[in-house]
Design a protein that fits this description.
There is one protein chain. With about 525 residues, the protein is mostly helical. The protein has 19 helices and 8 strands. The chain has helices spanning about 85-90, 100-110, 115-140, 150, 175-180, 195-210, 215-225, 225-235, 250-270, 295-305, 310-315, 340-350, 370-375, 380-385, 420-425, 440-445, 450-455, 475-495, 500-510, and strands at about 285-290, 295, 320-325, 335, 360, 400-405, 430-435, 470-475. The strands form 4 sheets. A two-stranded antiparallel sheet has the order 1-4. It has a two-stranded antiparallel ribbon with strand order 2-3. Strands 5-6 form a two-stranded antiparallel ribbon.
Length: about 525
């Protein structure tokens, strides 16, 4: 995944020149094209997972981006392909040099032993890979770069990492913001297929220009620019080569390029490994449709004549059940299967149904979420899902919630709310973090904006860390209320048990509260 400050591609890395650089036909009236839209220079939000590091602290230089064609209501037009097979087109564009590493064989063996995983991955890739390959070709990158989302997320648009990386390119929040990916209560552009793809490729191209080859660019994408720079400086001082193969780097980064080359080898000859890749036509899967009105996700899917699963797979950036349209946002587009665009337009033009069936509700501080859900005819799980609430959240802190409008209530003009940056943080309580190599109490506390004392308090006073250990973190905004509420609950519990030592029972009950218990 790409990383902010020393940008690191946590797993995603998007820039590798491709031999075949087919260019998307310029849009024509007769043949609409999905002009490789880009969301304001999308940025690889230093996503972290696998390889990316979410805590990069080195500044990211402004990338020299290649502006893609603007977003418009059209589908992408593919260059002519003799076989009509996108995998074949990808194979013809392989341009990265072979790497002598036993790690490649190790990763080939892993994928070969997981045929179901590979098949699911290739099925998910059907929606996105044509667009990614178009952008890779347009930039003149090697087609291996189009395969990076396999490493990052296996083309799962809802993939999230423990380091808060998101989307098929696994951008962490800071890197995403750096590349123009807005993240608010309503929408997370790190999950946007077009914006995140263009951000990742822009970043990879910038790294390739900086380091001069794709192996080092990919290492920097995963590890961070400063990590590669420091490793090269170390080798120079010790009179050693400064290419990828001779640098000292973290295990994740050391495995990053070999894993990509293993995927390349499998794509080049899947039968050799006993694997099957789902056929992907070398033609557009989706088209962009401009929208001007707020609309329910469910209604949009119904008007297009597709399932909710299909709609959300193409529009995974929408976090709420209402798709919010902002007047000054040039990215107010929906992605729909090519053959469903006219269906959507026709049905939208003639429908008389309510487009938005949700409304804001100003909850009272301390109000039970269970009570709110029942009042509006929802289950507690549905209320939490609609509002991004933690599964441990029980009471409101006074925030504005999204609730349904009753069938007998009149429609009203829907107004946006929860637009302030703090709206996301207010919705979450406890976070479960897995300790990684190099973590300390201090670095974890800084990462989640809590004090070291609060961190120790939430983890039974633990100060010794080990890799793989699970740490429970109560976010700063919730810590005071959490402590007060649960200490009261503990006292009640201890009295019921008639414990001889109320203090010890309080401590035990507090540390075992479900909000901090392992999943």
């Amino acid at each position: 995944m790409p990383q902010a400050a020393t940008p690191q591609a946590a797993t995603p890395q998007a820039a590798t020149p491709q031999a075949a650089t087919p260019q998307a036909a310029t849009p024509q009236a007769a043949t609409p094209q999905a002009a490789t839209p880009q969301a304001a220079t999308p940025q690889a939000a230093t996503p972290q997972t696998a390889t990316p590091q979410a805590n990069a602290t080195q500044p990211i230089n402004d990338p020299e981006t290649q502006s893609p064609a603007p977003i418009r209501e059209a589908m992408i037009v593919a260059p002519e392909s003799p076989s009509g097979d996108l995998w074949e087109r990808i194979r013809s564009g392989f341009a990265m040099k072979d790497l002598k590493s036993p790690l490649i064989k190790r990763h080939e063996k892993w994928y070969a032993s997981h045929p179901d995983y590979v098949l699911r991955m290739s099925e998910r890739a059907q929606r996105y890979l044509f667009y990614i390959m178009e952008e890779v070709d347009r930039r003149g990158m090697p087609s291996e770069i189009a395969l990076l989302p396999i490493i990052e997320s296996a083309f799962n648009p809802t993939a999230n990492s423990i380091a808060s990386a998101a989307g098929i390119w696994q951008f962490i929040p800071s890197t995403g913001k750096h590349f123009g990916m807005e993240q608010n209560w309503w929408h997370d552009e790190r999950r946007d297929i077009i914006g995140a793809t263009n951000g990742a490729l822009d970043y990879l191209q910038k790294l390739h220009d900086q380091f001069g080859d794709w192996e080092l660019a990919l290492a920097a994408y995963n590890w961070g620019e400063n990590g590669v720079i420091r490793a090269q400086a170390y080798n120079r001082r010790h009179h050693k080569p400064t290419d990828y193969a001779h640098l000292r780097m973290p295990r994740e980064t050391r495995n990053y390029v070999p894993k990509l080359l293993a995927i390349k080898n499998i794509v080049n000859d899947p039968a050799h490994y006993g694997l099957v890749l789902s056929k992907i036509p070398d033609e557009p899967y989706f088209a962009t449709v401009a929208t001007t009105k707020h609309i329910d996700v469910k209604v949009a899917a119904e008007l297009a004549g597709i399932s909710m699963d299909e709609f959300m797979a193409l529009n995974p950036g929408h976090s709420r059940p209402v798709i919010l349209q902002e007047p000054d946002n040039n990215n107010n587009v929906l992605l729909l299967p090519v053959d469903k665009v006219e269906t959507f337009r026709t049905n939208l033009a003639k429908t008389n149904q309510r487009l938005v069936s949700w409304q804001p509700y100003e909850s009272k501080k301390g109000e039970s979420f269970q009570h709110i859900a029942e009042h509006f005819g929802l289950t507690l799980a549905e209320l939490r899902s609609a509002n991004g609430l933690s599964k441990y959240a029980q009471e409101s802190n006074g925030q504005t919630l999204l609730v349904p409008i009753g069938d007998d209530e009149p429609s009203a003009q829907f107004a946006a709310f929860n637009m302030q940056p703090s709206a996301i943080a207010e919705m979450y309580g406890a976070v479960r973090y897995t300790v990684r190599r190099g973590d300390t109490i201090s670095t974890i506390a800084r990462r989640f904006h809590v004090s070291q004392a609060q961190l120790r308090e939430s983890n039974r006073g633990s100060t010794h860390l080990r890799v793989g250990q699970h740490f429970n973190i109560v976010l700063a905004d919730h810590h005071r209320a959490y402590r007060k509420r649960h200490l009261v609950a503990v006292k009640v519990k201890s009295r019921k048990r008639n414990s001889a030592s109320s203090a010890s029972n309080m401590k035990f009950a507090y540390t075992r509260h479900p909000a901090l218990a392992s999943d």
